[in-house]
Structure formats: C-alpha cells, structure tokens
Amino acid sequence: MRRFEGKNVFVTGAGSGFGRRTAQRFAEEGARRVYLVDYNQERLDDTAPAIEEYGAAAHKICLDLGDMDSCVEAVGRALAVDPKLDVLVSNAAAWVDVPFIDLETADWRRVLSVNLDAYFVLAREAARAMKETGGGVILFTASIAALGHGQGFTAYCAAKAGLVSLARAIAVECAPYGIRANCVSPGPADTQQSVDLVGEELMDKWRRHGFPVVPANRLADDIDIAEAFLYLASDAAKYVSGVNLVVDGALTARTYDVPED
Q: Contact at 8 Å (CB) between 220 and 187?
C-alpha cells in the first residue's frame, strides 16, 4: 500500500525502537519526506539509510527535546524545508526508576520535560502549521503506564496520563481545522528502552521463553506499534480522534486469576 504518497512526516525518538520502525513504515508507504528527530546523532545516521532506501528524503534533526526551545526549533527546521506537515509522531521518552518518596525534583522535571512538555510544544507548533495548510494528524506514544502504576515510575506514569488528556484536548480544539489527535499506548515491548531498563540477559530470556505477564505471552515488537500509528495516521481512521489505542496483548484487559492452591 502507498497510503502516505507525497506526505511529510515528523517522528521524534526516531533513532531506535518504535520511532525508527514507524519512520521506516511511513517511507515504505510513500512518504515524501521523513523528519527524523533524536538526541543521538549516531542513531540518526544509522536510521537515515533505512528511510532513503524507499525513496523518501530523510532529514536528520539532532536535538535534546527536554528543552522547550529546542522543540520549537525542531519543528521550525522541518517547516523551513516545506511549510506543509502532514503527520507528527511524538515518541521520544525519558524515565527514571526511583521510589516516589526518593524522587528528586530535578528527575521529576526531566521526565515531564521530555514526556509531556515536549509533546505539548511539538504538537502546538505542528498544529499551527497544519491549520494553515488544510489539516493533519498528531500522534503521541503514551503507554499503559497512563492507566495505572508501576513502582518506581511515578514521573513517567504521570506524564503519560497527561499525554492522553492532551491528545483529547487537541482533538476537540483543533477539529475545526481538520486536525486529528490520538495516542498509542504500548504494553511491555522489545525495544532499546527495555534493554536499558532490565539488561540484555533478562530481555533475551523473555524473547526465548515468552512473557507470561501478558496474556499473549510475548513482548510487543516495534512493528506492532508502528502499524497502530500508521492506521491512526491513515484515511482509514479519518473519523477517529481523541482516542487512546492500547496495544498490549490484552495485559490491561486482565483482572486476576483465581489461585490454584
């Protein structure tokens, strides 16, 4: 399929994981330009050829999205290339694993800066441009952490819950401009972020033997999440706005199992 023929797509956290695969899939389906945003230049350099092999132009933007001025600059760089922006996928993430009672203000601010403040600024700048060019689609990587709590991840959970609310606000306020906004909430996944969190040895075990915490008994692959983004960005979802699409192998559908003993 070529659902995004000629479209301009902006993806943050594009150097690895969900962001990289999502950017690649947009290129496969005809995107004209893909703006790749990441704080890691080496990862951007590695990702760009995977975009260009499908004929899309890969524009690398290396910035720290924990700084709100950098978020404005990132969108500005894209709009300087072409004033039309069709799809924004805001996906970059940061986290700390610290008990609530020990959480320092600086850590709280850093996590919210990357996971909520940046999403707000990027979406605002994108929406301003989309309003002038006939509309577009704004998509956020939220998380099942928006629906509950994992110990040690207070700031992350709070930020992701905020994203779900932010997407709904954008969906309502920007509907008159032809702009849709939605979230994708992944469950546990096989990504670089997961490796960073638990280590390669444990990740390998889960890859080989399954992940029984999830009813589907596996971690999400990056393609599972990428396909959710492409659906929401496509005309197949043209009446879908303000939703949080949970992609978690039925994890959050489960309540509890009766103990055998």
A: yes
Contact 242, 181 (CB under 8 A): yes
Question: What's residue 209's pLDDT?
Answer: 79
Position 191 scores a pLDDT of: 74
Residue bearing tokens 């956020």: 140
pLDDT of residue 224: 97
Which residue of the set 156, 231, 239, 256 is catalytic? 156
Please identify which residue in the block is written with the tokens 């929406």. Answer: 127
Tokens of 260: 């055998």
Query: Is residue 197 scored above 70 in pLDDT?
Result: no
Give all domains of the chain, ordered by start, each with its CATH number. 8-191+222-247 (3.40.50.720)
Q: Is 156 exposed, middle or buried (0-12, 13-18, 19+ CB in 10 A)?
A: buried
Which residues lie closer than 8 Å to 233 by C-beta, 6 or more apart? 4, 9, 26, 87, 89, 137, 139
Active site (annotated) includes residue 156: yes
